[in-house]
Amino acid sequence: MDSAIGVFDSGVGGLTVVREIMRQLPSENVIYFGDTARVPYGSKSKDTVLKFSKQIVRFLMTKNVKAIVFACNTASALALEEMRQEIKVPVVGVVRPGARMAVEMTKTKSVGVIGTDATIKSGIYNEYIRQLDPNVTVVGKACPLFVPLVEENLLEDRITDDMVDRYLSELKPYNVDSLVLGCTHYPLLMNPIKRYMGDAVTLVNPAYETAKELKNILEKNQLLNQKLDTPAYEFYVSDGVDKFKAFADEVLPININSVNVVDIESY
Amino acid sequence: MDSAIGVFDSGVGGLTVVREIMRQLPSENVIYFGDTARVPYGSKSKDTVLKFSKQIVRFLMTKNVKAIVFACNTASALALEEMRQEIKVPVVGVVRPGARMAVEMTKTKSVGVIGTDATIKSGIYNEYIRQLDPNVTVVGKACPLFVPLVEENLLEDRITDDMVDRYLSELKPYNVDSLVLGCTHYPLLMNPIKRYMGDAVTLVNPAYETAKELKNILEKNQLLNQKLDTPAYEFYVSDGVDKFKAFADEVLPININSVNVVDIESY
Q1: Of A209, B16, B115, B149, which is the most buried if we count CB atoms within 10 A?
Q2: How far is A211 from chain B (nearest CA, A)?
Q3: CA A6 – CA A1 distance, rounded (Å)
Q4: What's the ipTM?
Q5: pTM of whole model > 0.90?
Q6: Which residue does chain B place closest to A241, by CA atoms?
Q7: pLDDT of A27-53, one tens digit each?
Q8: Strands, DSSP E only, in B155-222?
C-alpha cells in the first residue's frame, strides 16, 4: 500500500525518528509535520498538547496516511492513549517502544528516564516499564534546557556538558544501567550524555525501537509498500521553513526538497 | 476613563512591564494576556508573530481596553507597525521607548542591544536609534538561551553566568556604554548582566520608559482613570494557569487572584 506514513513532532526532534524509518523501512513514503510555530510542547499542559495533537492528526488524515507515528515523547505521553480510539489507522508512539527496550537492556533493574517536564511528570515511562517488569526501579529526571541547547545547535559545548552534569548527577546514586532518551531531541546529545554516564550505561534511543514497532504493525496489517519506486518524503511545518530545512539537512541522510507551511490551527 | 489597559506578551516576560505600569500608573486597571501555549515568539517568523499578535489584539478588544501595550519586543519589532492602522485605540510598544532611552544615556555613541533572534534580525532597534541620532553605532546580539534560562528560574546560577559571558563578550570590543535589554525576560537577568558589563555600562530596561510613554499618551488623550477605586488586574493565558501564577507572584508586587485560560486560536 503506497499511502504515506504520517509522522509528527512539536518541531524538529521527530526527524530523529524519520531517520530510523528511512533506514528500517526504505520503501515507505513519509509525510512529516513539525509544529514549529508552537514548539516546545514539553513545558505545556495536557489540554494544550491534546488539542495540538488532534489538529495535527486531522491534518495528517487529509493526506490519507496509512499509519501515524507520534514522534514526540510529550505528545505520546499526554495525548496518544486518549486519541487512540478516534484514529482509524494504526498508531505508534515513542514511549512504549522505549520502555520495552529499557526493560530488555537492564540487568541491575534500575532504569533512568530523561525527558521534558511534561513527560517526566506524566509518569508514563514508569507505568509502562513496571507493567513489563514490576521489579524494575525507574528514576525520572526532567532536563528542560536540553531542547533549547539542541535548537541552538550547542551539541558539543562546555555549557552543554555543564547542563548534562547538573541534570544527570541526580541519577548517579541510583546505579542505573540503562537510560532512556525520552525526548526526540536528546539523541542529538548522545555524545555528551555518553561521556558523562560512561560505557557501563546503555543509552536507549526509542527512535530505533519505534521504527521497528512500526514495521511490525505495517506487516501485521499488510500495509507495507510493495512498490519499488523511490520513496517520497514530504515535510510540513507551521512556521520557519528555512530554519527547518537547515536542521533537517543535518539530521537526515538526504537533502530534503521542499518544506510547506500549514495553517495548523484551522484543522 | 476606567476601561482597562490591555497588555500582552508571548508569555510571562511582559509582567516586567505590568510591574512598571503598576508603579507609574497606580490607578489604572490592567488586563494582561500571556500566550503561554505558543511561547516563545523570538525564534519564530514574522508571519507567525503577526498572526498571533492579531488574535491577541482581537481578544483584548473584546474587553474594551482603552489602550494596548505590546509588552513583547519580538511582537513590537515584527507586528506593531503593520497593525497600528487597524487598532482603534492608542498603541505602545517596548522598542521605541527603549531606543529613545538608549540614545539619551549614551555618551560614547556606542549602544548595545540584546534580544531574541527575531528582534535582532529585524534590525528595528538599529533603525529607531539611528533615526534619533545617526551618529550612534548600534551593536546587536541575539541571546536565544536567556529566555529558557529565565523560564527555568536559573537567575543566579553559574551556567547563566557562563552564557552571559559567552554572548556579551562579543559586545566588549565595541565599548558600548549603554545596553538595551531588548526582551522583556531580560530584566530578570539584570544582576548577572550587570556583573559582567560592569558599572560603566548603563542597562536600559525599556519597561520603565514604556510605562512612562503609556502615561503620556493616556494623559494626552484624556484617558487616565479618574476613579479612586482599587485598580483591578485581570490575567489571561493560553495555557498553564498554575505555572503562570507562580511566576507572576514572584515578579509582581501583589499576589494575583485569578488567571483564566483563553482559547486564543479562536479569535
Answers
A1: B115
A2: 29
A3: 14
A4: 0.91
A5: yes
A6: B45
A7: 999 999 999 999 999 999 999 999 999
A8: 178-182, 202-204
